[in-house]
Input
Amino acid sequence: MPLSVIKRSLNAAGIKTVPGLPGDFQSSREWGNEAETHQQRWMWSVIQSSSGTALGTLVNVIHHDHTAFRVPHAPDVIALLETDKPAIELALSSRSADFAAALEFAVWYASHLELQGADTLELQGADTLELNTAADLEPAQW
Output
């Protein structure tokens, strides 16, 4: 079922996703095989009632290939009862050692830029984005 259909169905039922589906790329985690032909990116959205009560979390597992425009496996969806970030990360870490070992994208990317000697990212048509290194961030900022 296309993501657009899922979004419309949730909206019609008065259910919100925070962040919007499929989730926040900055807090996602990715890993895969050494050849980079089968990568996984896990990102999530907390499901909320129309009154804002957190009901659970949908985790989207996106399989992809870094070497070609190819999707090696259909997406997976994991449902969790946990709704706050530390509990979500703990639940996913207990489910997958790969998830536990992977860095959050924002932390990984800051480290990547630091290794290349950069501390800012130039965005086309936008102002310069200041990036914090992983060491500069408190866990609550992840």
Observations:
- The first strand starts at residue 16 and ends at 18.
